[in-house]
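pls ignore typos typing on phone
zinc ion + seq
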Amino acid sequence: MNLLMTRLLLFLFFLPIIVIGQSFSEQLDKDYENYKESSIHNRRFKHKDILPLIKSLDVPFIVSKVGESLEGRAIYQVKIGTGATKVLLWSQMHGDEPTATMAIMDILNFFATNDELDSYKKTILDNLTLYFIPLLNPDGGEQFRRRTALNVDLNRDALRLQTPEGQLLKKIRSQTNADWGFNLHDQSRYNSVGNTNKTATISFLAPAYNYEKGINEIRKRAIQQIGLMNETLQAYMPNHVAKYNDDFEPRAFGDNIQKWGTSTILIESGGYKNDPEKQFIRKMNFIALLSAFEQIALKKYANNSLVGYEKLPFNGRYFHELLIRNVTIRKSGKPYILDIAFRRDELQFNKNKSFYYQSYISDLGDLSTYFGYDELDAAGYQIVPGKLYPKTIRSFKKFQKLNISEMHRQGYTDIKIKNLSNEQRKLALPIHLLSEYELFNPVFSLGSNPSFFLEKNGQKEYLVINGVIFKL
Ligand SMILES: [Zn+2]
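k done
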């Protein structure tokens, strides 16, 4: 028998073991691309982008328009399954928190596909009835902003119920009398897992139903189930799971829905390195939610202890975008050693469909207990502030003919360009583009966005532009 044959036989022998040995979540991880809704690929999709996807769903889905936003955008419910246990999920009650909406589109595709995971689908749909309400706040989604068209935080309207979207959520909760609720949000990418150097990529919460943070049977089940979801996610992003602030908020939906008798789980999608559009985190939502459906269907949570949840570190706020450590800055001729941190905002344009980054100094001083998505130990390096190019350039085209390296050699970091477009601002170039009227601000203070070189032994080695570090 030759080597190839031996290998083939060994492969065939182990193949069934490999397949059988794979857990549901491992198969979801492996086959994710089969289900990923490819027409949605960044966070700023709109109501009109998901509407046709929802409307095209066929049997066994039951699709119904259940209400309208204040500005008249249709809100849909997608129902699937025939089980006795009812599970209600709503996403994007905050318009700029879209990660779970993307995951729901993937989950709907999962149930619409026939493949080798059908036995899992059958288990889920025989035992559960799933009610999805994707994009509960479509008006906010249109602006990619938190609040509804009434300028109200929908998640503080659970008692007063002035928003049509809030009234709708309350009504559907009552009508379904759901056993389980999944409240799906996004949180700041600067949240950390406790005070560790890991971002809080997913944070869970079983919201409290009173100030005492009591644990009745309803909340206990949510706590047990979060323990299982945490275990599932640890395999794909070790130590990137945290617990959200568990203070009781009497006006919030999660807290009240827990109180009204639905075991409620809050999922907050945070940040992950090299995932600006949160596509990895979307996949983590997909895996966590589908795994949860299977775990709930088979009541796997029932014997799980509360310890897994209790042990989860709370969210910290220890992350910055860029952290430069131990750099020397001169003031009045004297050297001082500082850490400098940047965070960034997303400035929107093109009807809130695009954005460019605007960075700012988020902290200065001893930041030894903080972390950055990007970090540089700049011990031995000195800050050399950048200079504004003396001429305003007439067009971007003219600018492209300039030699940037030569400008760097002369100490220039910023340049003014007439009719600078937002698309041009999106480019992460090693030179800071300013419009004709913008102020050049080289000052190092909280909130400012200075450009500068890092120099060692008279040699400029790095350049920081708009909170991004470049090696020269
Ligand atoms: Zn939120």
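The chain has two domains: 21-316, 324-471. The CA atoms of residues 100 and 150 lie 23 Å apart. more later
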